[in-house]
């Protein structure tokens, strides 16, 4: 049964009621469990868990250490195009915004790559707006250009079809990040007014296509601030569980993008720093193996403080417009908060005792040189 069918068994209002009815006793029971359930996740997400943040953080830190060691994986986004046919009311790239539009040429992509390689980056996230002009052939060409240079390539683009993901995977695609933005159908329709992304149900089943195509890692998340973050996260967790059961060969990651001000948009449902820590710890406590990703949308200080509590992946030295590393002056998709260069982020992580990992994957390139006899 597709996730779009499964989700119909749950009503947003009922989940919200259940979550806000959780008590201190529910939280204590959840903290005492080893194998935690969705109900435990709801308890740990609830307002009743707020006084237990320290206990949650301690357990979250210990579980992360146990399963990921002291590794902090570092990646960087490369924006390829800000052309977009969609109208998402919160986004600077929305078709309604009169901004300079561009898509990088192969030569410009290589110039950006050169800059990022010099910074030591090896894990690349390619980002585009959503338009038929930036279709699978464009992404395929970019992967072909970049996969000999970088060890892993992920994409955050429009949702493609199964055959497209298979095609990209054969070229070296490693991971796909696709945010549902909000699982509340009513809010989703309110924020997504035009274009393919306005189809809530299609987006909901898109990760099934990436999983079925055998993509190595699937990234999920909601845009924290569009609706009640607790309820949206409860639904993200359901989605994660569904995908984990079905595509057990893949790995999974959760991201925590907090809505930042873009052109003409201010976040409605804010999530505080403390609440974001609670959310991150709740994920770790209920899913010890999922990768947790904190981007440069967050401030340097916040990232430093939160890093030991469960985070496994961080972006560094990021820019959010096409050609930004070679300075085209195009509008950024959202405001970057942690402006530190890559080297400074890495040094600060090392100082805090992390092993900074720029490369843990060799893509489809041969990893064993001749002369080594395995047998
Ligand atoms: S969120 Fe994505 S699809 Fe929506 S306007 Fe921005 S770039 Fe386009």
Write up this protein.
The protein has helices at about 5, 10-20, 25-30, 40-45, 55-70, 105-120, 135-145, 160-170, 185-190, 200-205, 205-210, 230-245, 275-285, 300-305, 340-350; strands spanning about 70-80, 85-90, 125-130, 150-155, 175, 190-195, 215-220, 250-255, 290-295, 315, 355. The chain has about 375 residues and is α/β, with parallel strands linked by helices. It has a single domain, classed as TIM Barrel (Alpha-Beta Barrel). The strands form two sheets. Strands 1-3-4-5-7-8-9-10 form an eight-stranded parallel barrel, surrounded by five helices. A two-stranded antiparallel ribbon has the order 2-6. Strand 9, helix 14 and strand 10 (about 315) form a beta-alpha-beta unit. The chain is globular. Residues about 365-375 have low confidence and may be disordered. The chain binds iron/sulfur cluster (SF4). Iron/sulfur cluster (SF4) binds near residues 84, 94 and 130.
């Amino acid at each position: 049964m597709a996730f779009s069918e499964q989700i119909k068994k749950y009503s947003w209002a009922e989940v919200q009621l259940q979550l806000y009815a959780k008590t201190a006793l529910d939280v204590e029971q959840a903290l005492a469990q080893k194998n935690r359930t969705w109900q435990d996740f709801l308890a740990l997400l609830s307002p009743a868990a707020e006084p237990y943040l320290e206990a949650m953080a301690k357990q979250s830190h210990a579980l992360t250490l146990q399963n990921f060691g002291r590794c902090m994986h570092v990646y960087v986004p490369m924006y390829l195009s800000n052309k977009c046919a969609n109208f998402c009311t919160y986004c600077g790239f929305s078709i309604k915004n009169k901004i300079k539009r561009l898509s990088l040429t192969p030569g410009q992509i290589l110039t950006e790559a050169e800059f990022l390689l010099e910074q030591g980056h090896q894990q690349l996230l390619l980002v585009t707006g959503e338009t038929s002009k930036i279709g699978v052939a464009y992404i395929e060409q970019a992967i072909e250009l970049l996969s000999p240079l970088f060890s892993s390539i992920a994409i955050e683009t429009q949702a493609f079809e199964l055959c497209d993901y298979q095609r990209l995977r054969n070229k070296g695609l490693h991971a796909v990040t696709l945010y549902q933005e909000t699982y509340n159908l009513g809010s989703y329709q309110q924020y997504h007014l035009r274009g393919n992304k306005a189809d809530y149900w299609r987006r909901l089943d898109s990760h099934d296509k990436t999983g079925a195509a055998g993509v190595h890692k699937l990234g999920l998340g909601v845009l924290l601030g569009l609706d009640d973050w607790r309820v949206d996260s409860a639904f993200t967790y359901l989605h994660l569980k569904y995908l984990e059961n079905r595509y057990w060969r893949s790995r999974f990651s959760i991201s925590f993008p907090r809505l930042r001000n873009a052109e003409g948009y201010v976040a409605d449902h804010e999530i505080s720093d403390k609440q974001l820590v609670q959310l991150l710890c709740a994920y770790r406590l209920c899913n010890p193996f999922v990768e947790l990703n904190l981007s440069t949308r967050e401030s340097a200080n916040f990232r430093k403080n939160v890093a030991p509590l469960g985070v496994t992946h961080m972006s560094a030295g990021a820019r959010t417009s096409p050609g930004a590393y070679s300075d085209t002056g195009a509008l950024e998709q959202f405001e970057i908060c942690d402006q530190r260069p890559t080297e400074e982020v890495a040094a600060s992580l090392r100082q805090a005792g992390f092993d900074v990992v720029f490369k843990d994957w060799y893509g489809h390139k041969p990893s064993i040189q001749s002369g080594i006899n395995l047998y």
